[in-house]
Amino acid sequence: MKKTYLLFSLVFLAVTSLKAQSPINTTNMATFNAYAGVAADTAMPYYKDLGVRRVIVADPNNDGVQEIVATDYSNGGRVHVMKYDGAGNLEIIWSSPLSATSSGSTPRFPQVGDCDGDGMPEIIFEQNGEARIVFYEWDGTSWGTEPAYAITSDMLVAAGGSGNLRFNREVLTVKDLDGDGRSEIIGHSFGNSNRDVYILGIVDEFPGFASLVIEGGLPGASLNGINWATGSQWSSTPADIDGDGKLEVISHHWDNFGMWAIQVNGPDSYTYPDTSKPGFYNRYTPADGNSYFGLAAADVNGDGRSEIAGTMYGNGFDMCLFQFSPSDTSANLFYADADSVAKRYGIIATNASLAAVGGKTGAVELWPCVKGDLNKDGKDEIYTGGGRGLNVIAVQYNGSGSLVDKNNYTANLV
Description:
By secondary structure, the chain is mainly β. It has two domains: 1-227, no CATH class; 234-414. It has helices at 153-158, 338-344, 351-357, and strands at 13-15, 26-28, 55-58, 67-72, 78-84, 90-95, 111-113, 122-127, 132-137, 149-151, 164-165, 173-175, 184-190, 197-203, 211-216, 233-239, 248-253, 258-266, 269-271, 282-283, 296-298, 307-311, 319-322, 345-349, 369-372, 381-384, 393-397, 409-413. The strands form seven sheets. Strands 11, 12, 13, 14 and 15 form a five-stranded antiparallel beta sheet that branches. Strands 16, 17, 18, 19 and 20 form a five-stranded antiparallel beta sheet that branches. The radius of gyration is 21 Å and the shape is globular. The protein starts with 12 loop residues before the first strand and ends with a strand.
């Protein structure tokens, strides 16, 4: 396969300081320049510098080496797989086909999973123009030129769902939530019922006889987001918040930072909130805020339980955090009384303080929020960044005091 060099600049980070709570420092491993001297071509990746919306690190071919999976808005919207060559270069080793119908603003959030459980990973992403979620499966040589499988709204309805799936959200989640050896896909409806969250599974293998099932959120079997949420569903974050070794799903929607949860009971079994009891849902900001690029599950104090962090678009781009306890074993986790809110939620870094770390004055945009233990101290740092010249910032818990108190965190420009 012809190897194509990217036209944008991408930097790998390598930690040079391993001391706990010391600043996270990095060195360059690889940088890409526009076209590397090749004349612009409309069929080339990132033609006209149209966006890299999201980049993830994964092993989509099961070779034990991490690759980069990145989105590309050019040519109708594509996904590329890039591999580090060990000599300071990243090379594109696969690109999804050109899209003639995409809106040019998807795909936004690629994922890697094994949804049919055959041991061959899939690269999974949404295509709004084609109105589908596509699966490109590794066959031992490549991910192919045609999807091995695709999910459409008609398939959701045939499986018992209501309404259309939404294909242009910032966050798509694919993960083996219930430990059955198959990755689930978390989708949500679009239209008048665009607050429902579906946990989707694949029966049998593809290509071939695979079919779609709704494992969680099936209408008639449980209540769903339309019964309580006041805004459009935005993201679903798997996390082990109580330290029992099983995942929960933290759902987040647009409108005043709304939060609710789904408990994972075991294979193909999920519990949604009980509206007859307190805690089934709450909103946390007076402004119409949400964590635009999704929430992050991060264990900031290394106790084996995940906290949930996010940046607050629409509420000043502050960074917030939700903490949980071993007793949080139901789907009713988000209580509205003042005492519960104060124990559960807090601002851990203001926008002004993070702007100052980056040498900026005034408000700055802080978009993604991701975790990483780059200094290998057993505690996750939270990383964010944004536009307007602000680079990556690391936020670390200092090791003592309340997890929801901003005075107990330190930030540095990476």
